Amino acid sequence: MATAAHCAYCFEVLSCALEKRQPLSFSEVEDLWDQYEAAATEEVGVPEDEIDGTLSPPPPAAISRILNSPSTSSSASSSTPSLSTDTSTSNSSSTSSLSSLPKGSARSKGVASDEKYPLFVTWDTISKGGHKSLRGCIGTFEDQELDDGLRSYALTSAFEDHRFDEISLRELPNLGCGVTLLTNFEGIKDPMDWTVGTHGLRISFTDRNRRFGSTYLPDVAREQGWTKEETMISLMRKAGWSGKPSGWRNVNDLKVVRYQGHRHELSYKDYNEWRNWVEVTGRTGA
User: Fold this and answer.
1) Low complexity compositional bias: what residue ranges (predicted)?
2) pLDDT, mean of residues 274-284
């Protein structure tokens, strides 16, 4: 599944591209995120000097949020990828601030750095009130090594989603990043044989001698409050089909693939707190 470290790496790549500096490597980010979480875990325990009757300084704000804030698990924005053929949000969405840090990053959750996945990277603008607005979302259905795939699509979704202007440096503090790793692709004969909130859909069909295709990630139908039929019609509209809604089943050679995916989210604030911790502590990654 996607992890906070994956999102942190996307932020690292984007911020360094905008600030024209060299980013940490994927393995360094993973290792340093593990160290960061370990430091947070240590702060959760009772300090030895407190047992001796002396008080320790309070933990950093991010670590304090681990203790005091509930985790959130829903996404307020609909991550609708822009490309209709190989791009186009997951059965579960986890929002990571260190208020809800999952214990362990990619390696401790069983996602090896050298594993390959189809993936999508989503950028959202987060308002002061916490509302999310889609800022860019592009990915691929081709298996990607996480290092190359996350680096490539972090930048592609930030700079090449033609629905939006390129993300600028001044926007960084208001961004959130979501990473979705896709799994369990299954062709289905019945276009209704899928579950809202669990499955994403990829469709292709022919109409008037033209081939169409589009996709929605697993969270989209649930976030929009759509029925299955409304989702299918919207998918076909997204692909460019202009027929009557009642005629969606009548297109030629309709093929539907359902898939699953877990999306993880991280705010720039939490990425920046981790990055500052790296700088202040002088930690180095693998």
Assistant:
1) 69-102
2) 92
